[in-house]
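Question: what's this shape?

___
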Amino acid sequence: MSRQIKSVAVCGTGTMGSGIAALCANMGLPVLFLDLTSNGEDRNAISAAALERMQTGRQPMLKDEDALARIQIGNFDDDLVRIADYDLIVEVIIEDLGVKREFLEKVESLRSDGSIVATNTSGIMLAKITEGLGDRLARDIAVTHFFNPVLVMKLVELIPGENSDNEVIECLSRFLANDLGKGVVLAKDTVNFIANRIGCFWLLNGLNSAGTALDAGCTMEEIDAALSKPIGV
């Protein structure tokens, strides 16, 4: 089966989900944009509010009216079934292992054969997310770790699982690089992957160095000046 991604369902309309949805719509792809069901009269109020935010501000996320028209909003209770019509389902919900597993179990029951699932997480291992959720999902899923802001940051970490189909990973890699213009780095399925491991090391090392400098007589202002602008923070 030759995999192609011509449509994207984004599940989660927070900062990362909004960025991914906007990027895909800007690149000409139809997007299904879903989130929790509102308790109010408008059951799509949460996704509608996110779409509104994408159009406002000093730098709107959507480049034109055509991009806006490519996005269809909905909610998980009424519209999750619609993911069956989409080639790529991107899960971008809360960074909680149990919640992700429960949601992906629902996704797995509704998606079509041949579709691809991407879970966006900054450090939860894919093996833990997919454990016990079936062979089909294990073959068709990978982690895509986008960075914030999605429209600006070029890097995406792509993390296959032990049982991920090579064709799925190749398709995702082509899509991220060629269609979305990202720089794709393959990472192993370890806690925090590559970038966050480096970031945590840098942060802790910086804090230790700051403590040493403070003990040596430097002021807080001097330490802040040395560890901020000169290294791009």
Observations:
- The chain has two domains: 8-186, 195-231.
